[in-house]
């Protein structure tokens, strides 16, 4: 099939690359010329394992074409995917400016009846609004072109995006006509070979499914973070409790790891947007509001532990940070706990030495100039420890799992470790380290 994917952000780029890998011809369209020129040369705007090689190989074969010319793409495509960003507005709702601007571009450049599929995460009812928007522009131009709309949310995780996209647990398709389901099933046929993983439904339910998946996962995490806080005050150990409950198959082991809060481009934004949608329809969602509040508080847990240990005035204290990205294997720092922890510690007078395998540049852009003069970003994890009074682990990159404890002892002024992801074994306390963890 010939496909246009509008938007070369995380989802658009990964989707385009994966469709081309499966033998479809894909046009990836973006209005950002710099980005498209970079991609043509194989320069990726994001760090994601395996994506670079896929993009280069698919372009060499002619299966993946990056362009700013939407007309050229639409003329040669049977299906149009919208995969632009839907960032959070100030009031917590999803900002749909990019969606409607893509819809306008489609209307102004389309030359035949087309299927428009929304992959971006959009509030319930957006699909129909997009179709009406395109058709009203077409009508004004005297065109009789007809549009079908479908919803096909993406469930990939950063850092495992290619694997998730090529081997999805399920492919959710929301549409109104059998023919549309059939087209999209054909498109995904090779992704779900030998397993019927299609879940077919109406458009609004499909849009809702994406929010509910993320909200349910965020709820599991906030629930466990709350349990971790209760474990701390009662003397129980959340790690043991996790194993105790995860073994019940109705609960499962996934997404019940307590830590210093969830971040990323999806959970915080989508929980807020669902709260917002719900309120705009007159329903106040209690659980979702608490999920968000518990998470905001959880991002402060490490700061509170530092204050308990060193006092509220951190003037003269230097702290080392391991991990800045919102999770391992990505350079994404959106809504990352590191931003909250580091800015709060600096406000209290601390100096920071930080290391991340990939995210330092993104972190520098995100943290704000007022804090940068108090932060030294280093290239090696052990360089972050020189003359420091304690180590704070925020992101559990693999290279942090088995630190050289002799080197830690040699470099740190005080043998203090705050482990925000519970990756260290309590037995390091036997070597004289003070270990502060979450809920244990
Ligand atoms: C998430 C969803 O998993 C994915 O399906 C959706 O398409 C986009 O949002 P992503 O944001 O890439 O993916 O990361 P994910 O691996 O889900 O982690 C999100 C956050 O939750 C991270 O900050 C992580 O550290 C945190 N987390 C995850 C926990 O604190 N505890 C857990 O048990 C699991």
From TrEMBL:
Pathway, per record: Nucleotide-sugar biosynthesis; UDP-alpha-D-glucuronate biosynthesis; UDP-alpha-D-glucuronate from UDP-alpha-D-glucose: step 1/1
Record keywords: NAD, Oxidoreductase
Domain UDP-glucose/GDP-mannose dehydrogenase C-terminal: 320-426
InterPro entries per the UniProt record, alphabetical: 6-PGluconate_DH-like_C_sf, NAD(P)-bd_dom_sf, UDP-Glc/GDP-Man, UDP-Glc/GDP-Man_DH_C, UDP-Glc/GDP-Man_DH_C_sf, UDP-Glc/GDP-Man_DH_dimer, UDP-Glc/GDP-Man_DH_N, UDPglc_DH_bac
Catalyzed reactions: UDP-alpha-D-glucose + 2 NAD(+) + H2O = UDP-alpha-D-glucuronate + 2 NADH + 3 H(+)
Record: active site: 266 (nucleophile)
Residues binding substrate: 155-158, 210, 255-259, 263, 327
Class of the enzyme per the UniProt entry, highest EC level: oxidoreductase
NCBIfam families: NDP-sugDHase (TIGR03026)
Name of this chain's protein: UDP-glucose 6-dehydrogenase
Organism: Methanobrevibacter olleyae
């Amino acid at each position: 099939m010939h496909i246009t994917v509008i938007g070369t952000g995380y989802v658009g780029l990964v989707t385009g690359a994966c469709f081309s890998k499966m033998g479809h011809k894909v046009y990836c369209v973006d209005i950002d010329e710099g980005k498209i020129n970079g991609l043509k040369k194989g320069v990726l705007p994001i760090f994601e394992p395996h994506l670079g090689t896929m993009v280069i190989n698919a372009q060499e074969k002619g299966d993946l074409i990056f362009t700013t010319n939407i007309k050229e793409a639409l003329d040669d495509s049977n299906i149009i995917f919208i995969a632009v960003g839907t960032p959070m507005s100030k009031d917590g709702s999803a900002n749909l400016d990019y969606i409607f601007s893509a819809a306008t571009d489609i209307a102004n450049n389309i030359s035949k009846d087309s299927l428009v599929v929304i992959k971006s995460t959009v509030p319930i009812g957006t699909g129909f609004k997009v179709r009406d928007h395109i058709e009203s522009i077409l009508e004004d131009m005297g065109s009789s072109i007809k549009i079908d709309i479908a919803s096909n949310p993406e469930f990939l995780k950063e850092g495992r995006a290619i694997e998730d996209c090529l081997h999805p647990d399920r492919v959710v398709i929301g549409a109104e006509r059998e023919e549309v389901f059939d087209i999209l099933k054909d498109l995904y046929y090779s992704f779900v070979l030998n397993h019927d993983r299609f879940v077919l439904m109406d458009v609004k339910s499909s849009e809702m499914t994406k929010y509910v998946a993320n909200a349910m996962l965020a709820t599991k995490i906030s629930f466990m973070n709350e349990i971790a806080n209760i474990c701390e005050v009662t003397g129980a150990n959340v790690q043991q409790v996790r194993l105790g409950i995860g073994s019940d198959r109705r609960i499962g082991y996934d997404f019940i790891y307590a830590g210093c809060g969830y971040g990323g481009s999806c959970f915080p934004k989508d929980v807020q947007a669902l709260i917002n949608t719900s309120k705009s329809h007159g329903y106040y969602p209690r659980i979702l509001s608490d999920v968000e509040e518990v998470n905001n508080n959880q991002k402060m847990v490490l700061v509170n532990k530092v204050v308990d240990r060193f006092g509220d005035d951190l003037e003269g204290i230097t702290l080392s940070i391991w991990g800045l990205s919102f999770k391992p294997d990505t350079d994404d720092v959106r809504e990352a706990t590191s931003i909250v922890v580091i800015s709060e510690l600096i406000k209290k007078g601390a100096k920071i030495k930080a290391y991340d395998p990939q995210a330092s540049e993104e972190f520098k852009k995100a943290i704000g100039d007022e804090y940068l003069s108090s932060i030294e970003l280093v290239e090696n994890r052990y360089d972050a420890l020189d003359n420091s009074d304690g180590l704070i682990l925020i992101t559990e990159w693999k290279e942090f799992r088995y630190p050289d404890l002799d080197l830690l002892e040699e470099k740190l002024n005080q043998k203090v470790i705050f482990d925000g992801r519970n990756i260290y074994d309590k037995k390091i306390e036997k070597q004289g380290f003070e270990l502060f963890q979450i809920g244990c």
